[in-house]
Write a structure and sequence with these properties.
Elements: H1 3-17, E1 41-57, E2 64-78, H2 87-99, E3 104-108, E4 114-121, E5 124-133, E6 138-146, H3 157-167, E7 169-172, H4 189-201, E8 207-212, H5 219-238, E9 247-251, H6 264-270, E10 272-277
Parallel strand pairs: 8-9
Antiparallel strand pairs: 1-2, 2-6, 3-4, 4-5, 5-6, 7-10, 8-10
Helix pairs in contact: 3-4, 4-5
Length: 278
């Protein structure tokens, strides 16, 4: 390889690895800050969301792994007159970037028109799926940085009051705890704020706070855990100005499941706090 060609190839790699999320004029979105576009591409479409999910293909038989978290989806097209890279070159560049950060290629089609990659990212993972069309003229990219959804608002104070009036209780899934712990996660604050606001608008109402778990683990441990979580919710509400005399707390462990514990979604529904009017 001549010195000129080596210099050109080095320049290409440097541009790719050092790319940043810059909003280019006339384009719909910014690039992902850590996974830039391949050089010579322009963005046709781009969407960034705080929370979404995607089924990432992990083998040739169609097996997939679902990842959820912060999401980016992009479609890039080759600029007119830009150098035409092959699907293999495009995939290999992204693979090298991921491998340099302790990542790996999870799946790659034989013709390199599709690939899935994963790398560690803090306490989670970054997943990347590539679909390459027309011999490298179009690159479709999906990125998920795994994380639990940040609960913003489950019900407003007025909606909670309406539910209490119609059903006698409110079921809350947005009060979150670490696994096997009764400490409330900070992201639960918006839900707790709305509960406190509801109680301050309805000063005559009294509630029993019930903690519920899924069936993972021993029943006795789940019962103790649910009682601790209910007590934590009571403490959080009193710290927000709710009279503690209006509240009692109890835990029922996994004795009142509302969904199938055989699935993750079912277990998520069973892990809940209920406010029951007294």
């Amino acid at each position: 390889m001549s010195g000129h060609h080596r210099a050109c190839r080095l320049a290409l790699v440097l541009v790719f690895v050092c790319g940043r999320a810059l909003a280019q004029e006339g384009e719909p979105a910014k690039d992902n800050p850590s996974v830039p576009r391949f050089p010579g591409m322009t963005m046709e479409s781009g969407v960034e969301t705080d929370f979404d999910g995607f089924e990432f293909q992990t083998s040739s038989d169609g097996t997939a792994t679902r990842a959820e978290g912060k999401s980016w989806t992009f479609t890039y097209a080759l600029k007119e007159g830009a150098r035409h890279a092959s699907p293999l070159e495009i995939v290999r560049n992204y693979a090298n970037q991921f491998k340099a950060r302790a990542g790996k290629v999870v799946y790659q089609a034989p013709d390199a028109t599709e690939a899935t990659m994963m790398m560690p990212l803090g306490s989670g993972e970054r997943w990347l799926h590539l679909t390459i069309n027309n011999g490298g003229e179009q690159v479709m990219m999906t990125i998920i940085e795994t994380a639990a959804m940040v609960q913003k608002v489950e019900f407003s104070a007025d909606e909670m009051a309406e539910q209490v009036a119609s059903t006698g209780k409110v079921i809350l899934h947005g009060i979150l705890f670490d696994t096997a712990k009764s400490d409330i996660k900070p992201e639960s604050a918006p839900v707790l704020d709305e509960v406190a606001a509801m109680m301050k608008k309805n000063l005559d109402a009294r509630f029993r706070i019930e903690g519920h778990t899924d069936n993972v683990g021993a029943k006795a441990a789940n019962l103790t855990l649910s009682r601790g979580r209910a007590a934590s919710v009571k403490a959080a509400l009193t710290s927000r100005g709710v009279d503690g005399a209006r509240l009692t707390s109890d835990g029922l462990g996994d004795s009142r499941s509302v969904a199938d514990n055989a699935t993750e979604d079912g277990r998520r529904q069973n892990r809940r706090v209920e406010l029951v009017k007294q």
